[in-house]
Design a protein that fits this description.
The chain is mainly β and 314 residues long. The protein has three domains: 157 residues, Jelly Rolls; 98 residues, Immunoglobulin-like (Sandwich), CATH 2.60.40.10; 54 residues, Orthogonal Bundle (Type 1 dockerin domain), CATH 1.10.1330. It contains two helices and 24 strands. Strands 1, 4, 6, 9, 12 and 14 form a six-stranded antiparallel β-sheet that branches. A hairpin with a 3-residue loop joins strand 7 and strand 8.
Length: 314
């Protein structure tokens, strides 16, 4: 989690938080050198303070990195406080910080072996930064559960976006007609084990191979035959199960098919059974594509081919 655009902590802090990036990879609570109290004494204000709210996405232990700029090797620390729980932490200090350059530090009280770590729960947390030494600047703070990552540059290498799931082919308020290629994209989520698709909370399809499809699987994705769904309002939902838990995305859609075809063998619903239907069926062979699965057996096979050929030219 990276807090960016913190302006200089030089004498007075006039910081404005413009955004944050979440970096979460999981860790185990191991308090090292932090002061945990029921309440904190007030931080000094003579060199300025700044207060910010941080939205923590999941419970865990976070390593806190700060990028600071010190004019010399003596004045090179500032104070940090979190939630009236982690009190008056003196970040930085010691001889490890080179003067006149931006340096990432993750330690306190001048000891590089005493890391700044915090046990934080899901939800909002209040952080306060205050000036301790003169002429010290702070422009970025990162909270991350990846203790193996050392920030470089602006620290983007230790910041990753939160996991997300998105429905594709169907969006909120959309009207669907005929065959629709509905699927899902998953971002920043490792260890995906399955992706479930629902219509009105009824399981429609499960997929385990990317790209994830509401009909078929992986490279054999097909169209959802909306003529098999009643006209009117419906809720499409995708649930992704991955190493970090579950992700959900929904779309409120309207199904509208005024003249759905029921002609056997008409795979593409153009009211004719011909070479185009045969080509589509063969392309969906051995899949669960709803359009090509003419006998609704759950698999496109020779029985579906037989139905198509028996109605050829109709």
């Amino acid at each position: 989690m990276m807090l960016s655009n913190l302006s200089s902590l030089r004498r007075r802090i006039t910081t404005v938080i413009a955004g944050l990036v979440l970096a979460v990879t999981g860790a185990v609570w191991s308090p090292v050198g932090n002061t945990v109290e029921a309440a904190c004494t007030a931080l000094p204000t003579d060199k300025g303070t700044v207060t910010m709210t941080v939205a923590v996405p999941s419970t865990g232990t976070y390593r806190v990195w700060s990028r600071i700029f010190a004019q010399n090797t003596t004045d090179n620390s500032f104070l940090m406080q979190a939630d009236q729980t982690y009190c008056n932490i003196s970040v930085g200090g010691g001889s490890a910080i080179a003067p006149s350059t931006w340096t990432w530090v993750d330690y306190q009280n001048g000891s590089t072996s005493t890391k700044v770590t915090m046990d934080l729960t899901t939800g909002n947390h209040t952080f306060v930064l205050a000036g301790q030494d003169p002429s010290v600047m702070v422009d970025r703070v990162i909270l991350t559960t990846d203790t193996s990552c050392t920030p470089t540059g602006t620290g983007d290498n230790c910041a990753t976006l939160p996991a997300t799931a998105t429905l594709t082919g169907a969006s909120d308020g959309q009207t669907l007609t005929g065959g629709v290629p509905v699927g899902a994209t998953v971002a920043n989520a490792s260890g995906v084990t399955k992706v479930d698709f629902y219509i009105d909370n009824t399981l429609f399809n499960s997929d385990t191979i990317s790209p994830y499809c509401m009909t078929g699987t992986g490279a054999s994705c097909g169209n959802v035959d909306t003529t098999q769904i009643s006209n009117g309002a419906h809720v499409l939902k995708v649930t992704v199960t991955y190493a970090g838990g579950t992700l959900n995305a929904t779309a409120n859609v309207t199904i509208s098919n005024t003249n759905p075809t029921t002609k056997p063998g008409d795979v593409n619903h153009d009211n004719s059974v011909n070479i185009f239907d045969l080509s589509i069926l063969l392309g969906k062979w051995s899949t669960t594509d709803a359009n090509a699965d003419l006998n609704h057996s759950g698999n496109v096979d020779v029985f579906d081919l037989s139905i198509l050929l028996s109605h050829w030219g109709s």
